[in-house]
Amino acid sequence: PSSQEGPLAFSFFAKGFSGSYMKSMTSQIERRFEISSSVVGLIDGSFEIGNLMVMVLVSYLGPRIHRPKIIAVGCLIMSLGVFLSVMPQFLMGRYNYERVTVTVDNSSTSVSACSPASSVVLSELCSQKCKCLWSAGCEKTTNSYLWLFVLMGNLLRGIGEAPVMPLGFSYIDDFSKEENSAFYIGLVRSSGMFGPTLGFLLGSFCASLWVDIGVVDVDTISINPKDTRWVGAWWLGLLICGAVNFIASLPFWFLPHSLTKEGENENLKISHLSVQGEGCKIDSPVQPQMKFSEAAKDFLPALKKMFGNTVFLVYIFLTILQYNSLVGMITFETKFMEQQFNVSVAKAIFLIGVILLPITILGMFLGGFLIKKFKLHITEMAKFACITFIVAYLLNLLYFTCGCEVLQVAGLTAPYSGLKHLSSPKTNFMASCNADCGCKMDQWDPVCGDNGITYMTACFAGCKSSTGTGKNMVFHNCSCVEGQVHGLGNSSAFLGQCQRESCTKAFPYFLALQTACAFIFALGGTPTYMIMFRSVSPDLKSFAVGIETLVGRVLGGLPAPIYFGALIDETCLKWGTKNCGGTGSCRVYDTNAFRNVYLGLIAGLRTGCCLLYIVLCVLIMKRFKPDGKEITNIKNTERSTRKQPDTANKKEILPGAITSEESEETCM
């Protein structure tokens, strides 16, 4: 099967590559379209919606259709979806970040941020060349809804990805030797693991480039990648992802409907099965209606049998909580690192791609290797999975110690030290030192004072003069800074928010802790997955995988980014302003509240997981003997345990794989 292994491995690489790249770009998309975290969560969840729309149909039709061609169409749809997501970049025009400082090129003219007369000029939120229209309906211009292109693109990507795994795995399994099938599938999955790593690395590179690279002179940009207004070249990587998905589709057009069974001449039985396979191929066009009615008739009894299985039912609840914690954590991980530890999004993405993903892959493989090496039975696997999860969960609680102080913003998170606040609630950002400056409340172009406190704009710092241009502009004679450094006179402030050095120092400890947690969680991942296969009867294994995927995605993958995003939005202290009015994306979070919400949600979901793991262990130990064989009074799998006490333990069936028994049934 080497002829189909290569293309399938590359298609796995392509879907992982574009999927992880999209995950890494959530912050950039949020800022570019000036949307909230909950809307970003909705965009992220649209992939799951697309996937679920066709997953059941594709899995059911599996052997009855030309699988390679359906995979080829899937890869093309993924490519189309990615290219559709790029469209807004070419429809929106240049990105004009929120700023109030007007820079005058080739001139040393001093700009006074604090003076009622100049406040009108300084309140420009667009660059000098951009004509900005302030009107009532401005917020509802076409630009406001261009993020729907990204949502629809993600939806298409979900539809396109659906056939790749189930049809690819069953195609390999049908035409390879039984003993080689797991090896080939493992090979394809492991090559696919390189996709997410490279996707995150590409994401890191693109996030460090300015969004309008090639059109705008980067030297004129007055912000750096650590700024919450910075938008990277999110669209550039999508063009590469689209091209990779398109290339992945090409080889599948040339693969046959079916292949000769591997090694059919070596063994009469294998030869006989392959002849049956050919018969199946000839008959399939005549029989689909009958097959469908039979399947429909058996569907409800099979469903009842599955959910009557207590072990499987507990496993499903466990899966739902696992999906919620994992998807929520991954979606907002880069934002969490940026806000808590003062690292740029590009650096956070890079570290996830280089450290966390490979260590997770290693954990998954090691988990599978330990099962094989020590021939673990279902009872031992349950104990192993439970212990690793509880250890990782306890380590996970240490995240709360890796805190960081809130960014000190005058009038927002810190007082104008020693100066009396003005009483009006509308002017809580004002103090006596900037009361007559005519500052606008809805602006965000931070400056960092000599005292280590950030001011929302140079106007709020009460700065009277400036030197330099662009990102090198420095403001002088800032009355609010002066008040805090005991009237030393020439108190200055420079562009950008103050750096929180202590946070950056705490980051390596957080990263080491996260790496350890990821490894231990992944170690127990494979044994947990195998519990599902060993706890249901052989004829229901494929159905079990379908239910697990469906339930996990509908109740986990889809809602988690939305409610995580909505709760994170609640911790925002200062929202940005769109070019033409209206609320943009968040500029400053209450980092303590953010940490408690983000880590608290994950810890809460995982507490539920811990309890369900313990319940699962108890149920499995009651239902199975210590050697892994099932106690025969259980109706669900009584027959299969009597017939195949050994093969049930030896053979591991992967998602989408078709067993020899199923192959025979299909052809009858």
TrEMBL record:
Keyword Disulfide bond attributed: yes
GO MF terms, alphabetically ordered: bile acid transmembrane transporter activity; sodium-independent organic anion transmembrane transporter activity
Gene Ontology CC annotations of this record: basolateral plasma membrane
Species assigned in the record: Calidris pygmaea
A Pfam family: OATP
Family in the record: Belongs to the organo anion transporter (TC 2.A.60) family.
Topology in membrane: Multi-pass membrane protein
Superkingdom of origin organism: Eukaryota
Transmembrane segments: 35-58, 70-91, 193-213, 233-255, 306-325, 345-370, 382-400, 507-531, 597-621
Alphabetical list of InterPro entries matching this protein: Kazal_dom (IPR002350), Kazal_dom_sf (IPR036058), MFS_dom (IPR020846), MFS_trans_sf (IPR036259), OATP (IPR004156)
Keyword field: Cell membrane, Disulfide bond, Ion transport, Membrane, Transmembrane, Transmembrane helix, Transport
Name of the featured protein: Solute carrier organic anion transporter family member
Cellular localization per UniProt: Cell membrane
Domain Major facilitator superfamily (MFS) profile: 4-625
Residue intervals of the Kazal-like domain: 427-482
An individual GO BP term: monoatomic ion transport
Main location: membrane
